[in-house]
Write a structure and sequence with these properties.
244 residues, alpha/beta, Rossmann fold
Amino acid sequence: MTMEARVALVTGAGRGIGRAIALRLAGDGSAVLINYRSNDSAATELVEAIRYAGGQAEALRADISDPAQPRELFDQAERRFGPLDVVISNVGTARFGLLVEAEVADFDAVFATNARAGFLVLREGARRVRDGGRLVAVSAGFTATRQPGTGLYAASKAALEQLVRVLAVELGPRQVTVNSVLPGPVRTDGLASLPPAVIDRMIAEVPLGRLGEPEDIADIVGFLVSHEARWVTGQSIHAGGGAF
């Protein structure tokens, strides 16, 4: 199975890390299906950029946090480009605050997207991906820390990582690998909304001395879905510049 013959679905690909992953996979020769929730213009721009560079891409709008929509998303993906070889789960939302102040609604919202939606993507991917395929979930470096205010977010992403570890064993007989990537602080729209002092503190905690870029994470995902990573499965790859 060559990169040129593969079909990849990237969820949450409209911007940030998901966008960078879609560009990387398309650059490697895969036909890429770009899932997004609401930003039509960003998805259209990404498709046009990939096509301008000589790649194949289609945009598919779906809200993965709605349990009724992932199956239809995968149906659409297969109708566009055929059976899938690569599925990237890149859905997520964050609510930060002390656990003693958290409400049940906060718990439900974070787990519905990070854990349940991630589960739905991985489950559907496991059912659809061809033998020898690749599943990758984008998790979070906070699962490896104990920073105040991150409890709900980290717990929801930790649930996703456990799904990855078990699914890797269950899909092993089909030579399908399943891994997760744990980004540290990455230069995204969400990070840009934080106060400059908070961002400076994050950078100070990174031994490599800078924020991550979406392309840093995309390159790791590119490796995990490649033939060279055929012997890597059930792993949580830390990608925080040494911060955790």
